[in-house]
Design brief:
alpha/beta; Rossmann fold; Histone, subunit A; 6-stranded parallel β-sheet; 6 strands
Length: 319
Amino acid sequence: MANNLPMESPVIFLMGPTASGKTDIAAQLVQRLPLEIISVDSAMVYRGMDIGTAKPDAALLKIAPHRLINICEPYESYSAGNFVIDARQEIMQIHAAGKIPLLVGGTGLYFRSLEKGFSNLPTSDPDVRKKLTSQLKNKGLEYLYEELISVDPESAERINKNDPQRIQRALEIFELTGTPASLWYAKGRENQIEYPVVKIIVATNDRALLHNRIEQRFSQMLEQGLVEEVKALRQRDDLHSGLPSMRLVGYRQVWQHLDGDCSYKQMINKGIIATRQLAKRQFTWLRKEENAHWVDSEQTELSQYLQYFIESRALYNST
């Protein structure tokens, strides 16, 4: 494939719920086609969080390098806006090298923001975030949610009252600008991607099988040392349980266990349930995707995946 691909050269989205086998499929594809992988995962961006995020190991990364993993510290804030900026840069570099970007992951908001653009929201402010984190720790999540209801009832209605990250972000936007976050989002989206997008969604039709995979993977994470990984993170002075990184599925439940809030067995059960709930939310998000090509991960051979990619020009020219 020649260098300097034209603007109509595509980007390929390989999407799917957690534990659907996306990473292994992508690793096989890049060995057969002129593709380079960009991770679309809000957890894999963090350094030092390898086991609980199911990050590709060194051997896999050697044959299938992933861009946009290990790019920030767990105490740092990383948003969909940050991802769009970073991903666009990586896409340009991959196209310039004569290859096609293969974006792989399960973070639907990142995919949507890259494809459709995003509202030009104010960037996070460390001082405001520190203040809100302190309020969360000392006054509780219910207090922050009540504050959000008072200043931005529309956002409060849209955001789950048990979602500290999104509640804090909405309050942060209001404190920085004096304008409710709901009004910022209503202004519309900017920076829509200029490349054709081919979407392939990998998912099994057997929900019981997915649940079994989730259970097996969580057990494997524990065998690999997830508890020890969280113990090491807890020893750092710059990390605490209120951070978005420490509230990720798996990390949150292990942290609670180490705090003495639940037994080891209860932690396992909570972790598995939380991961299943994550997969359910991802399915809900994926069903709203337009012009997506659904593939059953249990019934489709690699050759068929390859065929989808080989025919991608016909796919995106037809949309």
